[in-house]
Amino acid sequence: MTEPILPFDIHPIPLPADAPAAVRVWLVELDLTTPIDGAPYAALADSERARAARFLRHADAVRFATMRCTLRHLLAVETNGDAASLVLNANEKGRPFLAQPNAPDFNVSHSGAYGLIAISRTRRVGVDIEEAPPSYQWRELAPAVLADTDRSEIEAMPEAARIGGFFDCWTAKEAVLKAHGDGIGGGAITLTGFSVLPRDGKRYTVTRTAGAFDAVSLPAPPGYAAALAWSF
Asked: GO biological process: what's one of them (predicted)?
């Protein structure tokens, strides 16, 4: 498929060889100072503009508007539709979907100055990207994120590698939950209800308590961690 020409800075991410061929992922670079009332945002629906206007910080409004507009353009290419005319709804868990027959599944994540979008016609997909500052006190969040196996694997790492191991684990788990569709707020599965470590190269070892999902780490900008998950 030809890469779409979009009004934003996006880059297709090469996936590991064992990732499904029907899954595609893009990295979106975000300019957090840009105004969101210009021509690049013409595809946004009125309700999306209203939602962007409710953010207290301009950077948060830019993240939402840029990711939603980019998603619209990518889905328009995928479905041979018009970006501004697509109808995006959300299910009872708040997970967005494209309201048309045989629509592809998709998922979006953003953190700091970057975002990820995954699209697939044959799988449920989830992505997550997190800014990973080296001073982050990861142990404070560990009880809410790590299963026993995850914690053991991270604690076995050299001290300098543990914070990276935590963020890798965290992004993989959030990607799995987003592919599952329950979200992070607690549902059929929770972050501590399954493990994703150890990791074999890029591929995580996702326990079946999470359902029928696999996950891989994604190349991310310096200072970030990212992951992709998909259904069997």
From this structure: lysine biosynthetic process via aminoadipic acid
